[in-house]
C-alpha cells in the first residue's frame, strides 16, 4: 500500500484516485503524521501532495524525517517537491512569476519514472510532456545526490530525482487529467518503482470486507438508514452479504422521492435480496412540517431533522440493534478531516442520511469508508445491484424539497415527480443519461398563460436542468439536442396536467449552482 501525505491541496484526492486506478491500495493522511505512524503503516512508497501554501513562506510545514528514513521510494508533487528539496538540503525560492495552467515540460526521460513517457518530440529530439502547473515558488538548488529530471524555460528544475534512493519529484500535477500522461506517471511510480502489487480489485474486496464485517459485529444486530442512493444501497448489500438477517434497513418515504423510488427499493432489497426492510410512510409528517416554509436552508433543516427523528424512533424499537451502519465513503472521510482546518464558506448545508447524531449510542459500522465513488459503484455491480441503481445520478438528501422553489406542497411534488420521470426516460431513450452528470426537473410555483385545444390554460412552469461536471464543484449546462428538448417539453405539457410551460436552464456553476435552492 501507498501512503499519501496531504499538505491541503484541492487535488490530493485525485492522487489517491489515480493510485487506486492502478489497482493499488492507498490512504491519504495529514502531512504531519508521526514517525511511528509511518513505520506502522509500512508503505511500499510515499507520495507528498501539493498545497495551497508556499514552501518558501511557511517552511515549517514539513513531513517527518521518517519519510526519508523509511527506505521506500518517495514522490513529491508541487509543494511536495519543494518540501523534499528543502528537507534534503536543496533550496526553494519564492518568485513573483506564477506559472499556472497548461505547460510543456521537457522530460529528461532516461529516468525510471519517465522513460518512454512523452507526448511529443521537439525538432531537437527532446521528449516533451503536456502538463498542468500551478505554482509560484520553485526549487533553485538541487539537494545533494539529485539531478534534474524535467525543465521548462522559466523553471529549470521542474522535476528532480535521486534514483539511488528512489526519490522523485515534479513541479507539475500528474494527478489531474490535464496532464496527459499523468496517470501513466503515477502508475509507473507505484507499480514499477515502489513495486506495489496491483491487487486492489473489488471482486477481492468483497470477500475481505465480508470477513471483516463478520469479525467486527459478530452476531449482534445492525441498523441502517437506506435512502435508495448509491452509497447506502451498496453498504446495505455488502452488510447483508456478511450478516443476512442481522441487518435491518429503515427506508423513510418523505414524499420528496422520485417516481417509483419506494417500490424500487422494496423490489431490489426486500423481494430480490430478502433483506429485512422497514418502510416508513412519513409523507404527511414531512408535508406538515414544511407547510408555510419558503427559505431553502430552513427547508433543508426541517427535512434533515424530521428524518433524524423518524430514524431514531424506528431505531429505538429495534432494541437488539447494537450497530449503526452508514454509507460513508472515502471522500467524506478526507473532506471532514480537511474541513477541520479549512474554512470553506457554506453555500448550502448538505444533509445526508449519514449525518445522524450520536444519541443512539450505537457503534458505527462504515464498510465503505476506504472507497471512492467509482469503487463503490463497481462493488455494487459485483454485489448484484441493478446497474440503473448503481449508476444513477446523485440525488440530494432533501430530495424534491430543494427542487420545488419556495413552499413545498404535496400537489407540487406530485407534478414534479411526473415531469422528472418523463425527462429522465427520454434522456435514457436518447442514450444520453450516462453521458451527463446530473439531470432533473425543477418546479417553479408561478403560473403562465397557455392555450390547449380551444381553451386557455393558466398553469405552472417547470425547468429542465442538465449538467456535466467531474466534481460537482463547477459544472457546465449540457448542450442537449433541440429535438430531445422539444420531445420532453411536448410530453410533459401533454401528460402532466397542471404544467403548461417548460424552459431549459442554461446557467453554469458558478455563478449558478446545480440545484436551484
Ligand atoms: P449544488 O446545487 O450545490 O449541488 O451546485 C452540488 C451537488 O450537491 C447536491 N446537493 C445536495 N446533496 N444534500 C445533498 O445530499 C443537499 O442539501 C444538497 N444540495 C445539493 C446536488 O444535487 C449536486 O449533485
TrEMBL record:
Q: Which Pfam families match?
A: GATase (PF00117), GMP_synt_C (PF00958), NAD_synthase (PF02540)
Instruction: Supply the SUPFAM superfamilies for this chain.
Output: Adenine nucleotide alpha hydrolases-like, Class I glutamine amidotransferase-like, GMP synthetase C-terminal dimerisation domain
Tell me what organism the protein belongs to: Sutterella parvirubra YIT 11816
From which lineage does this chain's organism come?
A: Bacteria, Pseudomonadati, Pseudomonadota, Betaproteobacteria, Burkholderiales
Q: What does this protein do?
A: Catalyzes the synthesis of GMP from XMP.
Catalytic activities: XMP + L-glutamine + ATP + H2O = GMP + L-glutamate + AMP + diphosphate + 2 H(+)
Where in this chain does the record put each GMPS ATP-PPase domain? 200-392
Keywords of the record: ATP-binding, Glutamine amidotransferase, GMP biosynthesis, Ligase, Nucleotide-binding, Purine biosynthesis
Give GO terms: molecular function aspect only. ATP binding; GMP synthase activity
Q: In which pathway does it act?
A: Purine metabolism; GMP biosynthesis; GMP from XMP (L-Gln route): step 1/1
Protein name, UniProt field = GMP synthase [glutamine-hydrolyzing]
Active site positions, chain numbering: 78, 173, 175
Coiled-coil ranges from the UniProt annotation? none
Entry EC number(s) = 6.3.5.2
Annotated residues that bind ATP are located at 227-233
Protein's UniProt keywords contain Ligase:
yes
Subunit composition and interactions: Homodimer.
Cell cycle as UniProt keyword: no
Question: Enzyme class, one word?
Answer: ligase
* Any one of the GO CC terms: cytosol
Amino acid at each position: 500500500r501507498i501512503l499519501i501525505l496531504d499538505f491541503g491541496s484541492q487535488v490530493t484526492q485525485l492522487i489517491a484516485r489515480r493510485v487506486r486506478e492502478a489497482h493499488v491500495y492507498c490512504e491519504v493522511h495529514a502531512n504531519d503524521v508521526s514517525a511511528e505512524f509511518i513505520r506502522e503503516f509500512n508503505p511500499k512508497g510515499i507520495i507528498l501532495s501539493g498545497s495551497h501554501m508556499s514552501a518558501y513562506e511557511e517552511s515549517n510545514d514539513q513531513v517527518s524525517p521518517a519519510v526519508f528514513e523509511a527506505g521506500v521510494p518517495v514522490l513529491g508533487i508541487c509543494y511536495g517537491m519543494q518540501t523534499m528539496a528543502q528537507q534534503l538540503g536543496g533550496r526553494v525560492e519564492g518568485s513573483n512569476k506564477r506559472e499556472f495552467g497548461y505547460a510543456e515540460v521537457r522530460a529528461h526521460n532516461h529516468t525510471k519514472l519517465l522513460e518512454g513517457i512523452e507526448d511529443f518530440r521537439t525538432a531537437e529530439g527532446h521528449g516533451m510532456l503536456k502538463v498542468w502547473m500551478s505554482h509560484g515558488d520553485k526549487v533553485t538548488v538541487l539537494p545533494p545526490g539529485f539531478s534534474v529530471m524535467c525543465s521548462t524555460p522559466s523553471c529549470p528544475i521542474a522535476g528532480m530525482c535521486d534514483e539511488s534512493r528512489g526519490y522523485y519529484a515534479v513541479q507539475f500535477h500528474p494527478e489531474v487529467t490535464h496532464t496527459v500522461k499523468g496517470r501513466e506517471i503515477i502508475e509507473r511510480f507505484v507499480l514499477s518503482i515502489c513495486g506495489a502489487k496491483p491487487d486492489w480489485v473489488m471482486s477481492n474486496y468483497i470477500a475481505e470486507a465480508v470477513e471483516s464485517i463478520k469479525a467486527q459485529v459478530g452476531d449482534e444486530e445492525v441498523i441502517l438508514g437506506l435512502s435508495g442512493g448509491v452509497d447506502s444501497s451498496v453498504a446495505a448489500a455488502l452488510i447483508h452479504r456478511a450478516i443476512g438477517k442481522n441487518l435491518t434497513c429503515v427506508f423513510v418515504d418523505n414524499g420528496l422521492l422520485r417516481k417509483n423510488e419506494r417500490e424500487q427499493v422494496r423490489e431490489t432489497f426486500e423481494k430480490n435480496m430478502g433483506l429485512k426492510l422497514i418502510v416508513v410512510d412519513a409523507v404527511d409528517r414531512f408535508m406538515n412540517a414544511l407547510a408555510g416554509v419558503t427559505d431553502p436552508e430552513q427547508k433543508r433543516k426541517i427535512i434533515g431533522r424530521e428524518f433524524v427523528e423518524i430514524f431514531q424512533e424506528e431505531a429505538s424499537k429495534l432494541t437488539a440493534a447494537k450497530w449503526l451502519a452508514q454509507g460513508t465513503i472515502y471522500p467524506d472521510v478526507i473532506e471532514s478531516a480537511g474541513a477541520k482546518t479549512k474554512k470553506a464558506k457554506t453555500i448550502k448545508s448538505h444533509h445526508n442520511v449519514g449525518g445522524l447524531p450520536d444519541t443512539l449510542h450505537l457503534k458505527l459500522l462504515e464498510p465503505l469508508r476506504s472507497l471512492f465513488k467509482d469503487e463503490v459503484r463497481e462493488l455494487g455491480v459485483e454485489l448484484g445491484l441493478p446497474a440503473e441503481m448503481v449508476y444513477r445520478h446523485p440525488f440530494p438528501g432533501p430530495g424534491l424539497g430543494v427542487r420545488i422553489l419556495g413552499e413545498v406542497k404535496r400537489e407540487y411534488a406530485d407534478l414534479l415527480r411526473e415531469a422528472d420521470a418523463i425527462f429522465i426516460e427520454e434522456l435514457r431513450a436518447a442514450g444520453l443519461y450516462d453521458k451527463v452528470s446530473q439531470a432533473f426537473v425543477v418546479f417553479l410555483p408561478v403560473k403562465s398563460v397557455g392555450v390547449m385545444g380551444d381553451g386557455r390554460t393558466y398553469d405552472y412552469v417547470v425547468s429542465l436542468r442538465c449538467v456535466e461536471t467531474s466534481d460537482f464543484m463547477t459544472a457546465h449546462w449540457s448542450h442537449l439536442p433541440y429535438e430531445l428538448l422539444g420531445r420532453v417539453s411536448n410530453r410533459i405539457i401533454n401528460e402532466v396536467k397542471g404544467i403548461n410551460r417548460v424552459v431549459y436552464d442554461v446557467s453554469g456553476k458558478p455563478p449558478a449552482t446545480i440545484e436551484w435552492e
